């Protein structure tokens, strides 16, 4: 039997740099109130959201990703030619073929890296990060670009008072590369397909396009109370498992970056997890809204940019959403 | 041992106080969670989860919307507690 030579990987992987892009247009709750019967106070009390960014026609999924990637590469000190794989997580790129990852890879000047899209909703960043870590450690790529990007404003029903205010647009990217020390912990991830109707697109594309018109464009809808219960109480267990798997006690944690779904979910998770006072909690949702796969890298970038967190801090990240799917891990911040 | 109606209302009053900051003495059977006690739909989920733990009962999401008043919740728990 012939012997196959394995790839030469790195003992460990780490996040080397992070970058974000938020669309220029800032949308306050007043704009949302033009299409729903609600109030600024109600929206803030239910979600903690005051403003969000909505993309212009020029701020496409690819354009936002290229901007975020450029910042992440500069932050990492890695050149585009060194990137061996580009992983893009999105649910709001409306052209399925080809994958948007290839265009992004080309536009950042990355040469010919492996490039593909994944669909894991609001857990997309954690799924992508886990794949990236695997590629670096196994040796199929030395440096991997992971992008979470959404234009959820395109999938928002502006007349639905339960969701019209929730979503925002943006892109977040990280560069994952080799490390001599563990800097990305074990991922606790999974799916609960029995709850696939809890968060979903209202109508499939083929059904929508087959109709004569007058039908509402597909949007993301959710069962608010069921999502809240799952997100707070089940995801707190997953977050704790990720801490345990990484051998990190809550006292040793510096930063908590949950998916920025809703401030109420974040606050209840912090309470349920009994996180110590000293832990910095990402609350980017207030001015960014829920940007699904982009929310964790965007929040990470902002915490580092404002000095609320620093390079080398130990952070617990957890994404959760439509699927239902989830992914949690502990990382060393770049 | 299963809790009595009175004990359940008392327990719910403590839970509502903890979650929404409402004085326990304001929590009575005829009070509506949303209209009288300032418990919105998301806080209601927290109340339900706390009640599940305290009274060893399962309250599925589809039943939560039927629990309008403290009395509704107390009756439900009385009927379903282990």
Structure commentary:
The complex is a heterodimer of chains A (334) and B (82). Chain A has 334 residues and is α/β, with parallel strands linked by helices. Chain A is built from 10 helices and 14 strands. In chain A, the strands form 4 sheets. Chain A has a 5-stranded mixed sheet, with helices on both faces. A 5-stranded mixed sheet of chain A has the order 8-14-13-11-12, with helices on both faces. Chain A has a two-stranded antiparallel sheet with strand order 2-3. In chain A, a hairpin with a 3-residue loop joins strand 13 and strand 14. Chain A is globular and about 65 Å long. Chain A starts with 11 loop residues before the first strand and ends with a strand. The model of chain B has no long low-confidence stretch (mean pLDDT 91). Chain B contains 5 helices and no strands. The radius of gyration of chain B is 11 Å and the shape is globular. Chain B is mostly helical. Chains A and B meet through helix 7 of A and helix 3 of B.
Query: Fraction of residues of chain A in helices?
Result: 25-40%
Radius of gyration of chain A from CA coordinates = 19 Å
Are there runs of chain B of 5+ residues with pLDDT below 50, and where?
none
Strand order of the largest sheet of chain A: 1-7-6-4-5
How many whole angstroms does the radius of gyration of chain B measure?
11 Å
Low-confidence stretches of chain A: none
Number of helices of chain B: 5
Helix proportion of chain B: 55-70%
The largest contact between protein chains, plus residue counts on each side, is: A-B, 12 and 11 residues
Count of beta strands of chain A:
14
Q: How far do the termini of chain A sit from each other?
A: 44 Å
